[in-house]
Amino acid sequence: MFGDIARFLLNTVFTLFGAALLLRAWLQFVRMPAYNPVTHTVLQVTNWLVLPLRRIIPGVRGIDWASVVAALLSSLVYVLLIVTLAGIDVTGVLPALAVVTVLTVVKWALNLIIWMTIVMALLSWLNPHSPVMPALYQLTAPFLNPLRRIIPQMGGLDLSPILLFVIVQVLLMIVTHAEISLTTFGI
Q: Within a domain: residue 162?
């Protein structure tokens, strides 16, 4: 029982922090203003790790590589903690750990897309004039705009978030299956 609780807590904390790190890179990529409340919160949560990394890892072509590397480092710590908690010898599974670390970051990114899409869709129905809506629209536009060209609006109803949700869920299943097949500890 203690192991299950510890895994749950580790998963929750590292997934939220990893998502914040990826969101930081995403916010910079879509050129979200720094005065935006979402941006400000994400920066406050992640500055302690990203700013020291930024001294040695510069951003290139609008991509905040320090945030991406920080997400990979967080994923590595998470995977090592889960493996250690499972009682598995880390040295015996080092090659798989590297792949699982990257797949964990991919899972965090896919989950972040799902969360942003769901929150945007719900707010568009419940409170379309929410102050968060412009930020959510700007964050999800790179994924939804290509789908909007494929699926036309039906009576003012935008079905592109549903299609994006389905696509990301399928990708998440593929990544999770690959992760489990690579390991015996199935993060």
A: yes
Q: Which domain holds residue 175?
A: 2-182
For position 184, what pLDDT does the model report?
Answer: 58
Residue 168 lies in a domain: yes
Q: Is residue 187 part of a domain?
A: no
Name residues whose C-beta falls within 8 Å of residue 72's C-beta, 6 or more positions apart in sequence.
101, 102, 105
Q: What sign does the CA torsion over 148, 175, 105, 2 have?
A: positive
Into how many domains does the chain fold? 1
Residue 166 lies in a domain: yes
* Residue 83: strand, helix, or coil: helix
pLDDT at 38: 84
| DSSP states along 30-69 | TT--TTSHHHHHHHHHHHHHHHHHHTTS--BTTB-HHHHH
Residues 6 or more apart whose Cβ sits within 8 Å of residue 95? none
* pLDDT on residue 186: 46
Q: What is the mean pLDDT of each run of 10 residues along the chain (187 residues)?
A: 90 96 95 85 95 93 94 96 86 85 96 94 88 90 93 84 95 92 62
